[in-house]
Amino acid sequence: MAPARRDCSGWEMFLPTGCLLLSVLLFHPALAKVCNDRTKHGQDNSWFSRDGENLPIMVLMPMNESALMSSISQGIEPAVQLAIQHIRESRKYSFSLITKIYDTECDNAKGLRAFFDAICYGPKHLMIFGGVCPSVTSIIAESLEGWNLVQLSFAATTPVLADKKKYPNFFRTVPSDNAVNPAVVKFLNYYNWSRVGTLTQDVQRFSEVRNDLTNELEKADIQIADTESFSNDPCVNVKKLKDNDVRIIIGQFDENLASKVFCCAYNLNMFGSKYQWIIPGWYQGNWWEQANTTNCTTKKLLTAMEGYISVDFEPLSARQIKGISGRTPKEYEREYSRELQQKGVEASKFHGFAYDGIWVIAKTLTRVMELLRVKQRQNTYHNFTVDDREVGKMVLDVMNETNFYGVTGQVMFRNGERMGTIKFNQFQEGQEVKVGEYNAIADVLDLINNSIRFQGVEPPKDRTFVRLQRRHINVPLYSILSTITILGMLMAGAFLFFNIKNRNHRLIKMSSPYMNNLIILGGMLSYASIFLFGLDGGFVSDKEFETLCTVRTWILIVGYTTAFGAMFAKTWRVHAIFKNVKMKKKIIKDQKLLIIVGGMLLIDLCILICWQIVDPLKRTVEEYSLEADPQGRDIAIRPFLEHCENTHMTIWLGIVYAYKGLLMLFGCFLAWETRNVSIPALNDSKYIGMSVYNVGIMCIIGAAVSFLTRDQPNVQFCIVALVIIFCSTITLCLVFVPKLITMRTNPDAATQNRRLKFTQNQKKEDSKTSTSVTSVNQANTSRLDGLQTDNHRLRMRITELDKELEEVTMQLQDTPEKTPYIKQNHYPDANNILSIRNFTDGKDGEKSILKNHLEQKPQAQWGSMDPSRINRGPLEDINSPEHIQRRLSLQLPILHHAYLPSIGGVDASCTSPSASPGSSPRHRHMPPSYRVMVSGL
């Protein structure tokens, strides 16, 4: 076998893989017969039947100081010797364990050669103890089944060895790197962290741990927000974690790259109260000083590292319970420290697992020996032998049944894996402090009270919690506008009461009280819609909100059409009458106006019903970009706003706006056309025109501003409410306040005719306007009252003129010399009397008297004589005093008898034109000479 060893030694520099394969082929008993005489247990069965037997144990460790991980082995040997000593002192075992250490130097080829030498040239080993370097351990463990040997490791933590199909004969007293994953999941669940990210160094050891952690997280229903791997520079990957809003970061990297990771975290501000780092806990002490190869200072690193949680297996149990050795962990640790001082070596973190491992071997061999003795006693032929395969199978079974309490805690295997204790440390003020531990056997996480210090007032959040915040209407704003709305409704109610109470009054009756009632009703509906516009999801449920969407739309549209439709109808009637070019009688009754308003409402109902059936309004939620919490909490605010929308919202709004816009344009046109109308019969047409203008302008402004402030509910509601309040209030006030003022200050204003005042540019339309007044009077239901009012006014004027005529008569009788005065001053009054007589002749006189009153031209004055008549005599001039005296003496009695009945004098039926005027009580003071003169004529 020596040449084989020399050949392998020669290849290891150039072909290490080939050497490994060759070694496996040479050592596998199925492929080669090597050291046959020294590897069969069946040739010598006395080891289990004799007391005091020395049982050799193969120990594989890197002992060369120049080899990797040799420091671990140097601190392990004192613990192994101490365990063997304690086993011997316990006197519970009938054998003595002897360890033979073989140096693997953490090299695959040298490790295989050491194993081969132990098999071929060493004593017959019942078990293999050791395995520090993962690569060497995995190669040897894979071939153990062929040798019927069981290996127990105390330091190999690589997760690869957990594959029992590939390594069925491998056990370890130290938990694997994967053993921390259930503890991490338990820790995450404790703080309700359900969203994490991983940052892994691109090495097989860490990749395997991450893969196993991924499976554990999926089982626990914990979301993995991002998985990042890096080789040298982790800053790019750390930045990605931040961009993905990862708050809880589970890292798998060695201490050399840990300093780079925390330097990147410092530069990216990924530390403090919003972040929690969880990293491996097997780093050497003060690793940040030894492994700092970054541009960050130690102070910056310590700032970024503050509060991180490290997870690792517990090297010694924290429970001071006496174990299988009769010592507590503290007592054992003191003895171990004394051994280290004597030998002058450094401690190893795996010494407790090595110590318990020797006890596992001792208990296993004791149990196997008991089983073999039982079988030997049961053998009747007394020639009992056992082969390697049977012994190997028995060792495996006994190992899986191991259960005792050692210095590292309860020692128990599950599928060859140690169910140990995992500890949690936290970096606090420059040092790691233990904050809790996880018992894998009981699956219990035990955290030390108040030991974990988070940099915030509470544990970090596992994400930026997005708190949905409804953009709702402020209650004070809603209260203020609601109060104003209530006042407006009370005002409308007062107007309605006034309109109904005085509906038979001439002033109210001439302004169409039924139309006024519709205006008030529409205003109150518009007011009511304000209450519904102010309700959102903060006051009502989602289903009720959808109902409100429909109700408030219907109320506003119907209220608008009712109020302003009535105003448009009234304005249209004024326009139709005053633009009647043919001057025909045009009577437009209120029933026709009601039909017009009903037609408008019918169109609205058709649109609304189709809208509701085809594409009803639904509650939709619009979310906006994240905003920082104004109170500085670790949350983000995502505002959302509820809208009433449907699939084809633009089309339906276009239909409604088009229809209402046409009505508004038509109303503005009518208001402009009738802007100069100011007559008693239509005393509110001017105010209705003003209302139409105001409403049109406010609706345009309100719709535009409301659309632009769609994402600001308070502003939108305020504008919509103010537009509705302003339009409704100004309309009602313009229609009813003048009536209230007139009713209070001048109740008879409706009976007083006011002259239409026109500029010189309007004189050409005087005749048309006068005729239009007559047409309006005929169209109005109170036309007769208007005529009676004019008659009363004219009677008063006749009385005044009668007095003047009496004075003229007296002057003519007593002082004839005052004739020029009469000529110049009283002849027009006489003509007025004659004209007034014509007014009573019939209905045709109505037009004549008004027309003559407005259009009469100045008559020739008596004093203006024709020059051709200057030389004529008094008898030849018809305007001579004699002729005037005769005409007056003849006309005055006739006029008195004709108009005394109309002014309250003597009844025309009981008198005659030839009767003496002296019979009238009002003319008894006339002298007798006057009566004689009349009789003589």
TrEMBL record:
UniProt entry tagged with the keyword Cell membrane: yes
Q: Where in the sequence is the signal peptide annotated?
A: 1-32
Asked if the keyword Iron-sulfur belongs to this entry, the reply reads: no
Gene3D superfamilies linked to this entry: 3.40.50.2300
Write down any Gene Ontology CC term: G protein-coupled receptor heterodimeric complex
Q: How does it sit in the membrane?
A: Multi-pass membrane protein
The coiled-coil segments of this chain are 784-811
TM segments? 477-498, 518-539, 551-572, 593-614, 649-672, 692-708, 714-737
Domain spans labelled G-protein coupled receptors family 3 profile: 477-759
- Location in the cell: Postsynaptic cell membrane
User: Main localisation, per the record?
Assistant: membrane
- Can you say what this protein is called? Gamma-aminobutyric acid (GABA) B receptor, 2
Give the lineage: Eukaryota, Metazoa, Chordata, Craniata, Vertebrata
